[in-house]
């Protein structure tokens, strides 16, 4: 009798283990909602980006559903954490596939996005990344992006500086341990060489040494640079600006979309950022749609949206427009939807918070006007 | 035939304890492999689990290999992720270069694994010479530093290839001076992208079995006994003529080489390889150490089981959303506290499989 009990308990354990393995197998899409799977870091060091994307995407989905959905069908969003890690990102993708996701929104950061793109391509699932800037993120024809790629930003920056005569001797400070920063720097350097823009100092730092920039700034000053190009995020830019003021070095500062948010840095003297020029896809005042979005986002989440949020918000509306263009219905398989959306993406012209009349090529890259912003009297002003 | 069979069984019964224990370890893994294969072919396994199969093998290999250093050699190493990183980049670099020359993954991948293992083992040997003179905390600190150094060097390493051969730089891609049509293979912080996805569950299991075979055989060999003698009492071991440096280096480099194998498996499972703090930093090293400690220091089978459980756990807790990391941490603390507590061990012994068999035997004999 005692043995019997043990046999039964063993059998039950086996069943439990098996059910754990198969757990999510049967949960397939019901045919009246489009299922969008979002991937991004909501925990860990890059959580600020992932959370912004998650919130903004949810906001857009709620708005669309309240307004009657897409082609009369509702949208459902499931957002999974990837901790800014390629391996975890693939796990998140697989979890979403088990949930029945038909469209992938993500990943938010570049390296995880490349890993996920490999899987979506194999499964033929449509993928749109709001903010994966590395070139390889949209290597395959099923992947598209909302933001500019790293090389595009570098090239546009160099051209803008040259055309507007902002400076003749350029110094660059960049983060050599960051893919985003090195990507922009490299294309900037290449484009500067072809345009005849002189780079007099190139100084690098890493994620471990991003507190003290006095050496780099002194070198830039000694080299006589009259323009400082900063392809980095605003938290480091804030330190650079205040340390440059200490050594009384005041070049023209030119930066990229990572600079967006500098005026919100705590304990930072905003007057130091006066006159800073940067490229950005988004500010809350860029157009009417952006103003509406910013107000709605602030009301719901209590903070001003950053560019990641805007990209994600647009991404959901882009999916909506492409679905409408292709007359899609939720009972299609993800492979059919992917083929349909791929065709629709190159046909649509999208106007949203990050620009007007954006179009896409079959390579997945968006074509849109870059917005150049200058900080005047402590506010972001479009030039 | 019948007689032979009985002979085999009785041989197994009389075989020494180690041999039986090893067979059980291999048996568990083979059974798990077969079970999963059957479930996969029946279409009963979710995508998540399917995607996790290769990482599970990777982490199990890492845990077993670290157990060789921590459990058998008795030295605390916090740089295991560094060896994994070396193996991963060496293997991925080879595959990326050779993907044109050797199109067949069956030939290319074993070579990549071999190269990853040799590179990591070589680094283990190099680091081992000065480091193994240190003990305890000092060794831990130096290996910790080694892991960080490897990560940082790879983050600023640029390697390109054109018709003239390979170009190296620590600056940026422009300074490589590549010809038209040259290809950048390792791109600093952007790492290696486009590694062929050669890793499969079957290869992972084979590698895990090979790892176990190497480690278990080493432990129960003459060399293994010498290594354990060093762990238990260095002075006594030295006095009976055991070559301390040789055996320490042997264990340390084998451990590093096996970590390199895991690295190659990791690199070929994803199409992007970057040396982030998340995957090759000291956090990862400590994570592997946690697998070892939870599974029992010196307990090889335990390492495999704990690596599998701790890798699966955060993924299976995904339903809990943002609380999952919190719950994971709480479970980890609880497991650490109770898994090896005397009461728990007593309980486990009481209800162990071995005990069950013994009872049955006793009953039979009584009858």
Question: What does this entry look like structurally?
Answer:
The complex is a heterodimer of chains A (383) and B (367). Chain A has helices at 2-22, 47-66, 86-99, 110-123, 150-163, 179-195, 214-222, 234-246, 288-301, 307-325, 334-345, and strands at 33-40, 74-81, 103-105, 126-129, 143-145, 169-175, 198-205, 227-230, 252-255, 277-280, 350-352, 355-360, 366-367, 371-376, 379-382. With 383 residues, chain A is α/β, with parallel strands linked by helices. In chain A, helix 3 (86-99) crosses helix 4 (110-123), helix 5 runs parallel beside helix 6 and helix 10 (307-325) crosses helix 11. Chain A is elongated, with a radius of gyration of 23 Å. Chain A starts with a helix and ends with a strand. The model of chain A is unreliable at 21-29 (pLDDT under 50). Helix content of chain B is 72%, strand content 5%. In chain B, the strands form two sheets. A three-stranded antiparallel sheet of chain B has the order 2-1-3, covered by helices on one side. Chain B starts with a helix and ends with a helix. At the A-B interface, helix 1, helix 3, helix 4 and helix 6 of A face helix 3, strand 5 and helix 11 of B.
